[in-house]
Amino acid sequence: MVLIEAEGTRVTRVNYGITGFNNINLVASGGRAVEITDFDNPVPVPGVLTFQWTAQDGPAGKYDIRIAYFDEEDGESPLTFSVNGEVVGTYVYNLNLPANRPRPTAEPRNYVPLRGGNSSGTLSAEANPNKPLFQNIDLAPGDEIEISVLADSNNSDLNFERGRLDAIEITRIPSVDLFWHNPVSAKVGLWTLNGQGTSVETTAFITDQSGQEVSVPDNTGFEARGVVDLGDGIKSP
Known about the structure:
mainly beta, Jelly Rolls, five-stranded antiparallel beta sheet, 19 strands
């Protein structure tokens, strides 16, 4: 599991400022969150967070994404999650959790944690959208991850939900890889089973525990090998 703090140094922020006001610091994982700074422009300007996935974060594979944020009742901010410029997930801040009036803003009562209910009791574990928020996302070292949010207002007083965001949690999905050699076609098949389903493809090599790619001779009979990955990047036969 990798935890990315939205206010952290590895994240590039555009139209996002760092805040800890109104007791945000009591619930945000790092004591701070980020909020859109230019939020009432006639032409909406998104707040954008970008960071790179590295080999230290995890190998190529399928990942689940959770996002901790503040869901205010004065707007319904749209969020997009992109990898290398391609949108792979969308979400709307539409829980509209209650907060202070008459000018709603971010506070502990409208905090959406990475899992479970919030400490104020205004959000139950069952109602938390982080189940996770985005599932089965392909990531590999070098990928550029972008989160873009637009501020939104749903009231005549022009109070805005400013896309406040705390942290991003990225967790590799456990999987089982089965390899087999087809003596008729002389091809090696790779079958992957994970929590989101299965995929089948053809491969020319089997990767052994040392990370070396081992070619399978054409005259090899039927042979199956299994590899289990519990999500930590360590594959065991």
